[in-house]
Amino acid sequence: MLRAAWRSLLGRRLRLLTSTLAIVLGVAFVAGTLIFTDTLDRSFTSIFDSSVGDVVVQPTGAASSGSDRTTLTVPAGVVADLAALPGAARADGRASGSGVFVVGANGRVVGGQGAPGIWRNDSTAPAAGGVEPLQVLRGRSPRGEQEVAVDTATARRAGYALGDRVRLVSVGERALLTPTLVGLAGFPDGGSLNGASVALFDTATTQRLFLEDRDVFTSVWVTARPGVSQDELRAQVARVLPDGLTAQTGERAAAASASGLLEAISFLTVFLLVFAGIALVVGSFLIVNTFSMLVAQRSRELALLRALGASRGQVTRSVLFEALVVGLLGSAVGLGLGVLLALGIQALFSRLGLDLSSQPLVVETRTPVAALGVGVLVTVVAAYLPARRSARIAPVAALRDDVAMPESTLRLRGWAGLLLVLAGAALGAVGLLAAVSQPGYWVGVGALLAILGVAAASPVLARPFLRVVGAAYTRGFGTVGRLAGENALRNPRRTAATASALMIGLTLVTTMSVAGSSAGASVDRTVARSFLGDVVVSNAVGQPFSAEVASRVEGVEGVGSVTRLRTAESRTDEGRAFLTAADPRTLPDVLRLDLVAGSLADLRGDTLLVGEERAREEGLAVGDEVTFRFPSGPRELRVVGIHDATVAGYLTTLQVLREGGYPPEDSALLVAVAPGADAAAVKTGIEDVTADLPILTVKDQVEYAAEQREPIDRLVLMIYALLGLALVIAVLGVVNTLGLSVVERTREIGLLRAIGVDRRQLRRMIGLESVAIAVLGALLGLGLGLVFGLALMQSLRDEGLEVTRVPWWSLAGYLLAAVVIGLVAAVLPARRAARLDVLDAVSHE
Predict the structure, then answer these.
(1) Distance from first CA to last CA of the chain, Å, rounded?
(2) Cα(784)–Cα(790) distance, integer angstroms
(3) Residue 773: beta bridge partners?
(4) Tens of pLDDT along 281-327?
């Protein structure tokens, strides 16, 4: 039996190619995702390990508030006390933060798209374990306010060389700095900053520019003497620290710094693996179809094996053995392709500002194990049902000229599919109508069950559609059309399975189209309804900027008021919390806040406004108090109003953030034009006074709405690109089904050619059959996607996405694309059918 299985496998290797390709693509996505995220993890872990000392001393609030933006500092006098400890080799004051970006010689900001712009004092302090941190490698260390050193990669991207004057956009009191480049910094061991940029100043300059000219530091690194452990040194440090300071071992400090980022990386892994799973599910339809048709074509051979004494188990195992070989081969090739895919993802992220070019790819043991395991498991499971069906061939069937595969009734599949759809609808109703947390998840799980249900019932659903298509084909194309319709209807199980693969991809694409279009329309409505101002100034890379910018804007002729918006991250008893702060006196000039309870006039002192949705989730009412853990310590803010705007969950005053220990850095400026002034002229004036700060953007209301839509559009496009893999596999499924169908109908095709059907008519017949399959999948996908999209938007109405918009033209484009897919997929199978020799085809067995 093993020899027979090998012979069957080698004799049909071309027919198994597309099935193998489906596994290759799915496994490549799994392997590429794991390799890339492991590389990312290793790279950032290395960076954080080199960014801490053996013991790190910092203000207590900076470690407990959940924010890395704070005005809390360590007095310089502490450094000498720590250096005198018996276990300390040295102690070094460190001053660092983010928000300084290098402007290249071409006037564009270097990096910034996710990667931070770091400022830091030049220090030779060794990192934990004696690791050499970032330091000046070429040129010399900066001295004085007019000198700076930047990392080598940033200098290269910016087009600067030693001796050039560098433009720096700063979050400090001075928004623009123009020092001379005197040094190029880097890691002595060749490490990378992953796209971040670093500007080094001498200590006095760093304190003057970023620490209000005080003799303080943001942290202190204490280096252990040989033989002294980090824990021992930390215990010594803790005994001499004054109140308000805390000490951590370098190991714990690095882990704490990396935790948030590594959590984001784990989310990225899950996000990408979801699409790999979609690709594998779609590929499983292709595998089931392929093995079903191959088993059908080998039915006489398998019946003879049964007649010769092979047991049912041996027949089943022979087919599963073929699936195992296909799975192993596809997984092995997919693993190799996954390495190339990881390089491609690495290059893509490099263009987005996350440069991992100097980091070698990391292939953990789990990657090949997971890739091979997933590929083989999916292939074998998908081939199991055809294998079982093959074992049911009766030995006496070998005595007949025609052998029909036993086909179970479709009624059971129809009922099972209906039950899954009903279960999915029930879960969706719970998410939409019941008071449950995270209703989107309920809707999502319900959608998954509904997709599986429709896929299971698709042979039943396909029959009436294919009968209608057959009638239309007959009227439009005569006998050739009737034959195409009958061929598609001949095996509704196979046709529906092929269409289901396309259905899954188009369901998700349609859902995202509805969600993306609706989200964009919701943003437009929110901006139009809530934003009363005329101009918005914000940072193009989503980072805060210097408070000096507001002073510049206030001096522009025609400006009526400038409202500073500042944001901060904190913690409450409910977890992470983000606050927005503004001046309540000017806020009504630029923002419409409709309060459902309380009064905006009460927003002063330790108070805040709460969004209606947030208040409902946390059971808050006017008069309640919320405790925030600010860098300066815990602080209770009293709720004085509940608003229905989607601008912020928590809205407080600038004074609260300032007293809470957050730096005076603005996130956006909302500008109201003075009565009678020309808004366009005012916008031009603001552009003029911020022209030397290319990191800022100046927008009117329409441009601001477009900017808010841009992240949504990017996300939707990225999801489209990822779903493209599933659609490619679905198209391969159509090609494979038609190709195997041609082989299966070789004698029939020969007879058609013998009675006068020419090659062009034969190609047309197969093309029409392919279009019927593709349109069936498209209609099912469009219908499901439309329902899911509408349900998803309904579940998110309380999140501020109040507008539901169906992109009808896009949906029509998808249907047209399905017709094109059907025509393209039929090219190779139709060509093969047309080239068959008539006599050989008629005598084919």
Answers:
(1) 22
(2) 10
(3) none
(4) 777 777 777 777 666 656 666 666 666 666 767 777 777 777 788 78
